Amino acid sequence: MENIKLSQALDFFDESEALFMLLEPLPEYKLNEPTQFKNWTLSDVVQHLHIWNWAANESLVNENSFLKFLDALFKKVAISGSLREFENSWLDGLSGAELLQEWRQFYTTMTARFSECDPKKRLKWAGPDMSARSSITARLMETWAHGQEVYDHLGVVRQDGDRIHNIAVLGTNTYKWTFLVREEQIPGPMPFVRLKSPSGIFWEFGQDSDHDSITGSATEFCQVVTQVRNIADTDLSVVGSVANEWMSKAQCFAGAAEKPPLAGTRFTRNV
Question: Which helix (H) or strand (E) holds 170?
């Protein structure tokens, strides 16, 4: 691609493509098996990613259309209380192999659009407005996080790339958000975070500290802040009261406060 202004778009594409390659060979019945995440099926995961990719793209290219989509969403959920019901209705029967191809075709086109746009362009969203860079980074995070239940269900240990640096940044940038979304007092400055990347280099965030820190695998840190693993199911070293409180409820995504999975409930299956 030429004129790349937003490298996060290419990271989003690579993460989406890795997930597609995992799913594409599966028989139809396999796509309908439930995962460890709220009993969503593999197909439910793809549906969710595809719809919100579409929404993020629409916020970039057609703001009025995006706002109409949000209005329809809020009205439907207010009546039924079910996001999944709205998503199923929106897809109008699209599923299985046809859905996989549609998802792939769309995220490919979407990548080209985002890679060439102004990273600082302000976009509407379901929550506060955000920059184009934040929007595509959020799509990368969602793809990676929801992809985890797919890898876990299929018994595959994901081989991460250093593109998860984007998620680690998001995880540390949302330190205060974890408490604000719960209407809790921020307990102090963000603990020092030192992570070993998939390539073996170290990423550091915050001020070096002996009494409040989190160290270990970047993959495991990203798993905790996206709530696809309980901190007890990782080998992260967590030192200090603030660090322990943060890791017990870390949440890097928008929306209402969510509880992390219970210890031992999210794991890579032996198949």
Answer: helix 165-173
